[in-house]
Amino acid sequence: MLFRRGKADRREVETHRVSVMDQRILFHQPSLDREEEREIVDTLRSGWVTTGPKTKRFEQEFAKYVKAKYAVGLNSCTSALHLSLIVAGVKEGDEVITTPITFASTANVIVHQGAKPIFCDVEPDTLNIDPKDIEEKITERTKAIIPVHFAGHPADMDEIIKIAKKHNLVVIEDAAHAIEAEYKGKKIGSIGDTTCFSFYATKNITTGEGGMLTTNNKEWAEKISIMSLHGISRDAWKRYGEEGYRHWDIIHPGYKYNMSDIQAALGLAQLKKIEEFWQIRERYTQMYREAFREIPQIQVLGEREGIRHSYHLFIIVVKTEELKANRDTIMNEIQKEGVSIGIHFRAIHLHPYYRETFGFRRGMLPYAEYASERVISLPLYPKMREEEVEKVISVAKKVIGGYQKR
Ligand SMILES: *Cc1c(COP(=O)(O)O)cnc(C)c1O
Question: 374: phi > 0 → left, psi -120 to 50 → alpha, else beta; which?
């Protein structure tokens, strides 16, 4: 009897292992469970689904988490970046300095304001904007710097703030990857003039779509809040009596960038679990780092002293000059083996619109271009199981190993 039970158990274990190894590993899956369902249902039943009490609460709790004085809930990080440029007074003919290794919106919002994006090269170890390149690119037209805390590793904020102070520039942080990150003991979200966060589906916490802007500047927080909802003055509400219909005034031609209470409901539930999620991603990151450390054709991005990484993405830079295949071939092979990957990012200055409009060309930013053709992001999220991390490692090693020059 005992023997037979043992055999059956073993067979079950085997079947389970086969199913894990056969299933496609998705690049990302959000961690949405009972708590999120409960908050959403609560919001639906409350009858208040647009910007309201939950948005307010989410703003307060988020501000507390990132140690910022003010937080404004928005419908995306892109909106947060755009409104930051507006309050910074960026307009036609101005220049804004940023990194080419980022998502489309970091640069697009600069164009929306009629300004010109000026791209700097990146640091080889972190792929963050290289402060040494910033100062060289400042002109009389420069108004702001947008560093991106790439993959969750904070940019070199001491240097960036120093340069910004010297030249009287606004610092707008793109922290879409970096909610949990810290720089020299300070939370990301509490440092620059504004910091912009994303709750897009693949980010560390999600509201489906959504974003948050934090700042320590009271006047800016108020302006941004007004600009996020058609430029309608909130003070107008107070002016018109206690009861009955209250008039509102348009004081700017604002935008429709507000967060809804349905989004905030998700955000409140997600924020409670943010550190728990971080711990799982940290553990998986260490597994990846350990596995790839000894492989000369793979560069793993660094982690500097004095920072807290948010472990949003795990990126390998595949040294294709030492291999018989390019990145896209390797990427496709990995995908064929049942592992979905991402590319963060192909350098913005080489995309057609940017090349054609601003005359950017290959050769301007050597390291960004090197990385642009070599980065691969591997799956990293709390819903992954340890066996899946192991499978990703073995697939990546096998594929890259197969293209070795000898
Ligand atoms: C995702 C992302 C954004 C945009 O976030 P949304 O909330 O989708 O607008 C901006 N910058 C970076 C670096 C991103 O990865």
Answer: alpha
Q: How is the beta sheet containing 95-98 ordered, strand by strand?
A: 70-74, 211-215, 194-198, 170-174, 142-146, 95-98, 116-119
Residue ranges, the chain, pLDDT below 70:
1-21, 234-243
Binding site membership of 76 for ligand 1 (Cβ less than 6 Å): yes
Please say whether the beta carbons of 99 and 119 come within 8 A: yes
Ligand 1 near 215 CB (within 6 A): no
Indicate the helix (H) or strand (E) that contains 212: strand 211-215
> What does the pLDDT look like over 2-57, one tens digit per residue?
444 444 444 455 555 555 567 999 999 999 999 999 999 999 999 999 999 999 99
C-alpha 8 chain-centroid distance = 46
Hey, which of 101, 105, 106, 259 would you mutate to test ligand 1's pocket, going by the most ligand atoms within 8 Å of its Cβ? 105
Active site residue 203: yes
Q: How many residues does the chain have?
A: 406
